[in-house]
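User: Teach me something about this protein's shape.
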Amino acid sequence: MRIFGKVRHRPSASWRQATDRAFTLIGDGRYEDAGALLTRAADLEPWLSESWFNLALLHKFRHDWEQARAAGLRAVALLDRGSGAPDWWNVGIAATALQDWPLARRAWQAYGLRAPGSGPHDAAANSEPTGMELGSAAVRLSPEGEAEVVWGRRLDPARMEVLSIPLPSSGRRWGEVVLHDGVPNGERVTAAGPSYPVFDEIELWAPSPVPTWVVLLEAATEADRDALEQLASDAGFAAEDWSSSVRLLCRACSESRMESDEGHGEHLDPHDHSEPGHPGPLGHRTSGDLWVPERECGIAAPAGLVRGLLDGWVADSPDSREWRDLEEVC
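Assistant: First, the predicted structure itself:
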């Protein structure tokens, strides 16, 4: 049977039935059964790039990166369109997971992105595709569990370095690199106006050795709180006031276009689904400009540094600062 160069035609009814049933099973988490159906669909229509794209997608859901790369390469070999095909993006994710940097660069370029160092004679062609300058974005950690959206820096189209300090329930740390999906699932709008996409985490790509701590602060003013965050940053680590940076959202709100700042004055956030009068530690309701001195703060710093950092913060203004109940949580 001639495959390459075959005139494109509509897939058979059997192909469509097998594929539709397979994606229903994927939605139910029945990946093995779905795989059998998608393999059958690929046997029925091996010249369709969609057959192999669907298999690559399934293997991505299963985190079977060798199989995802193989199926993805078969899909792009059958493409009848130029740049911008999602098939190439899936190949790029699989290649990144496997640290197959030449293929990752090829995939991003074929999709239509500029990947520095991709030339045939470039010495950097076999290294990570750095320098793509994709900027900041947000990533939803543990999307199938206790999902949490945090800020990060995009290293390339499939990886993000976490710059927020995640809550311990996510199992993630500041400074970790996560592999993420290519299609945004929500948006965050900043007070300054720009909006940023929210990508779903696929898996942890590189762990961080820096532990997460929680501590209760007594900070008389916002400036006192800011001083600790600056002190941690100057030391090469991070501190984050969870009392003001965290809010509890339902899934529908989290995956929509959301303001990332609560604004000024008396405020009742319609996206905060904690109970009125009982916001709990993740509540996002405020009463005007009233500052509450007791703050729950997350700190990302080595064990040998964290207490000295807090003591130094207090020493700079002992009348307005105090800390207690330091605990390592992740």
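Now, about its shape. The two ends are 56 Å apart (CA to CA). Residues 13-27 form the longest helix (15 residues). If you'd like, I can walk through any region in more detail.
User: That's plenty for now, thanks!
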